[in-house]
Specification:
single chain; about 350 residues; alpha/beta; Rossmann fold; 6-stranded mixed beta sheet; 4-stranded parallel beta sheet; 14 strands; about 40% helix; binds iron/sulfur cluster; iron; Quinolinate synthase; quinolinate synthetase A activity; metal-binding; metal ion binding
Length: about 350
């Protein structure tokens, strides 16, 4: 096996050789060994915007997860190739909504509510779900524009179906002043509502999906910190459960979290509720502040972590050889409909 130094040298060599023909994108949750080679890093929104703007690169290597690479492929030109260094880098949340389940749910919603429902989907969803949403007049959202997009959605229709993250949906809707009593949950496994009350009062239907990383930040973690470290500021990602977000001091996307800590005074104390690689990077970059993970057992995203230095090198070698083994290619009909949903967001983001 190759040493880290040799692999790093080879990555730099191929990057130098391909120049502007190659563009490496890295999501904030990626490992340091990968992120150090990224030409641009960002949250989901920024990476989507960059994919839509970059017209120079022939190959875009997406260090992130499958749905992000799909989005990059949809937003890039036809002759640009998007590669995912490890095809197994999926997202358990995106996998919680498939087309079959979504169509069954949609049929019920049409029966119950008639033509009063607009679908919105978190970008953490498959291209097929984005296409379904686009065909039905809806849009994608990211964690940094969910509030703005939900506000827009309510100018279009009376009710919203929010896929696939119930937590982001609930946290955002509550932020907009919608009471919990007007939120129903749709259970796609048992194909039924989880709701008590008059269904006609419902304003938002939350798909019963979640992020397995962010569900690990609990009110118990917060209670413990408030008791032991009362001066800690608690900042979490809105994929965390409602109770956690309510009990914390700040909530926002990965970019928001980074920005907030960057602008905090030296000596301030922070507990962060998000993925481990990002938390550790922030701790390392801000040694003048006292920063910990909100959950003392660091929470990794297993699929983000599949992208490592060997996989990055392997994908660059593929490009060098002119092979497209790890290419992500969304079928044209799906891409066209998904573009409608993505553009409705990008126009407003
Ligand atoms: P953001 O980059 O929008 O904060 O999303 C976090 C996430 O879970 C990506 O999978
Ligand atoms: Fe999916 Fe959660 Fe991992 Fe993001 S952190 S890729 S939402 S499992």
């Amino acid at each position: 096996t190759m040493s880290i130094e040799v692999m790093e040298e080879k990555v730099l060599e191929i990057k130098a050789k391909l120049g502007k023909k190659l563009f490496i994108l890295g999501h904030h949750y990626q490992k340091d060994e990968v992120i150090k080679f990224a030409d641009a890093t960002g949250d989901s929104l920024k990476l989507a915007q960059i994919s839509a703007q970059n017209k120079d690169a022939e190959s875009i290597v997406f260090c992130g997860v499958h749905f992000m690479a799909e989005t990059a492929d949809i937003l890039s030109n036809d002759d640009q190739v998007v590669l995912l260094p490890d095809m197994r880098a999926g997202c358990s949340m995106a996998d919680m909504a498939d087309m079959n389940q979504t169509e069954r749910c949609w049929n019920v919603l049409q029966e119950v509510f008639g033509d009063t429902v607009l679908p919105l989907t978190y970008v953490n969803s498959t291209a097929a779900i984005k296409a379904f949403v686009g065909r039905n007049g809806g849009a994608t959202v990211t964690s940094s524009n969910a509030k703005k997009m939900l506000e827009w959605a309510f100018t279009q229709k009376e009710r919203i179906l929010f896929l696939p993250d119930q937590h982001l949906g609930r946290n955002t809707a509550f932020d907009l002043g919608i009471p919990l009593e007007q939120m129903a949950v749709w259970d796609p496994i048992n194909h039924c509502f989880e709701f008590e009350g008059d269904i006609r009062e419902v304003k938002i239907i939350l798909w019963k999906g979640h992020c397995s990383v962010h569900e690990n930040f609990t009110v118990e973690n917060i209670r413990h910190l408030r008791e032991t470290k009362p001066d800690m500021n608690i900042i979490v990602h809105p994929e965390c459960p409602f109770e956690t977000v309510e009990a914390s001091d700040f909530a926002g996307s990965t970019s928001y979290i980074i920005h907030k800590i960057e602008h905090a005074p030296a000596g301030s104390q922070w507990a962060i509720g998000t993925e481990m690689n990002l938390v550790q990077r922030i701790i390392h970059q801000h040694q003048d502040k006292e920063i910990v993970s909100l959950n003392p057992h660091l929470c990794p995203c297993m699929t983000m972590n599949r992208i490592d230095l060997p996989h990055l090198l392997w994908s660059l070698e593929m490009i060098e050889k002119g092979e497209t083994a790890q290419q992500i290619k969304v079928p044209t009909d799906i891409a066209n409909d998904a573009t409608l949903a993505l553009n409705r967001m990008l126009e407003r983001a």
